[in-house]
């Protein structure tokens, strides 16, 4: 199969790596715009431009287009490809509103009876203080537009909450105030084709920049899978209580979902509650999850894209665990420094090092070109082994000023994560 992957981050590098490691035959892999670490044919394209992406897919006669990031989905790239008769993995513009509009997602969840935080949209700066009285003591203030996970402030400081809400509104988007959902977080990725839902392994992301969950929210600093602390029926409960009802509600609304639905959840005393949906694979959880996939990813994505997911044989997974550790550039997330040289071992081994913000330097080596520079992936029989493999590699990679979290999966390894009573 000739497969075109749209995107340029660690998630897309993980997708390409899994697509190249396949039991379903060799695939001819293409990527646009890609990054320096990817082994595929690169193309330059404006990823948000439906006509441009469709023209590229036609030109190379792609059998399948896989859309990695959310922006092209929200811009309707999947719709244009579908109209052109090209199989595409990724939801329509309307369906991607589950990620693109938090208000839409709340509406769908309310109708579908899915547990989530109570939310209030505020559009007037003067109303922020009044409305915040109904929330707290921990305040959640979100930008009700696309912000790549960076538009959220979680704080016990009401002044900070007010300031952020006002800044969001002044920036042109509504602010969304939410009640705080307690409990450990779970990322569950599901292949969804209409009413058919196939879950991948559950993962956990570490969103704060520094060890011990200190510092600003980021796109994600590391992840591990599966989750030893999740109740045995945890994935099934998320599928039954969250993803299937939402998939059903989307069908009922005449906007069936086709692609990856990423449920970001907090596992509270009552079980799973939705923090957010994303219309795409999560980054960096994908880097860990796909490291354990034994079945052909190409077959799974193609089945989803062509409406035959119900006929796909059950997915097979490797035993054990996987962990990803993100190497971030100095100054990330506020102001990442670009251009510094990256050296070390394993930079060309895509089983272990997945590139994100990298580019080719003048002397042929790699340089940092983004905030999250690369991901190191480790696998092992235990979670501790998996993280050790990743840390042994990342310790030997040099990038001036860079940093990474030293405690990925640590609370899970130490048995510190507990969940409330199961049903
Ligand atoms: P989001 O942009 O919705 O992905 O939120 C980013 C992060 O903020 C999440 O991964 C959570 O850690 C945190 N968060 C967002 N909403 C809530 C909530 N209602 N309760 C608790 N934590 C939240
Ligand atoms: N893992 C966070 C995200 O992909 O949004």
From TrEMBL:
Keywords (A to Z) from UniProt: ATP-binding, Ligase, Nucleotide-binding, Purine biosynthesis
Gene Ontology molecular function terms on file: ATP binding; metal ion binding; phosphoribosylamine-glycine ligase activity
Matches recorded under SMART domains: GARS_A, GARS_C
UniProt EC number: 6.3.4.13
Reaction catalysis annotation: 5-phospho-beta-D-ribosylamine + glycine + ATP = N(1)-(5-phospho-beta-D-ribosyl)glycinamide + ADP + phosphate + H(+)
ATP-grasp domain location: 106-306
Protein's UniProt keywords contain Nucleotide-binding: yes
GO biological process, one term: purine nucleobase biosynthetic process
Name of this chain's protein: Phosphoribosylamine--glycine ligase
């Amino acid at each position: 199969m000739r497969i075109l992957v749209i995107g340029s981050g660690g998630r897309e590098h993980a997708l390409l790596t899994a697509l190249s490691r396949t039991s379903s035959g060799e695939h001819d892999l293409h990527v646009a715009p890609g990054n320096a670490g990817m082994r595929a044919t690169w193309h330059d394209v404006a990823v948000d431009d439906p006509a441009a992406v469709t023209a590229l897919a036609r030109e190379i006669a792609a059998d399948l287009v896989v859309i990695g990031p959310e922006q092209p989905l929200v811009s309707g790239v999947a719709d244009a490809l579908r109209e052109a008769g090209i199989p595409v993995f990724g939801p329509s513009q309307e369906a991607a509103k589950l990620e693109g509009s938090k208000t839409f997602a709340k509406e769908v969840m309310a109708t579908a009876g899915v547990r989530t935080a109570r939310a209030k949209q505020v559009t007037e700066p003067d109303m922020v203080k009044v409305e915040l009285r109904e929330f707290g003591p921990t305040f959640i203030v979100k930008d009700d537009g696309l912000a790549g996970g960076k538009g959220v402030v979680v704080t016990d400081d009401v002044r900070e909450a007010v300031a952020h809400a006002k800044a969001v509104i002044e920036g042109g988007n509504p602010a969304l105030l939410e009640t705080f959902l307690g409990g450990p977080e779970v990322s569950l990725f599901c292949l969804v084709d209409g009413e058919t839902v196939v879950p991948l392994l559950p993962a956990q992301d570490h969103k704060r920049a520094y060890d011990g969950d200190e510092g600003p929210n980021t796109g994600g600093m590391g992840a591990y899978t599966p989750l030893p602390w999740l109740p045995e029926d945890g994935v099934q409960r998320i599928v039954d209580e969250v993803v299937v009802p939402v998939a059903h509600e989307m069908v009922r609304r005449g906007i069936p979902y086709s692609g990856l639905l990423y449920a970001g959840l907090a596992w509270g005393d009552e079980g799973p509650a939705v923090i957010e949906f994303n219309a795409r694979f999560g980054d960096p959880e994908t880097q860990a999850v796909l490291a354990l996939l034994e079945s052909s990813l190409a077959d799974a994505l193609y089945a989803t894209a062509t409406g035959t997911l119900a006929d796909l044989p059950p997915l097979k997974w490797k035993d054990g665990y996987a962990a990803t550790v993100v190497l971030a550039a100095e100054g990330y997330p506020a102001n990442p420094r670009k251009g510094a040289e990256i050296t070390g071992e394993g930079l060309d081994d895509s089983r272990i090092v997945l590139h994100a913000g990298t580019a080719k330097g003048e002397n042929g080596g790699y340089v940092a070109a983004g905030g999250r520079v690369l991901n190191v992936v480790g696998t092992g029989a235990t979670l501790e082994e998996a993280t050790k493999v990743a840390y042994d590699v990342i310790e030997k990679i040099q990038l001036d000023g860079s940093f990474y979290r030293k405690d990925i999966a640590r609370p899970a390894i130490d048995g510190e994560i507990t969940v409330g009573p199961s049903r």
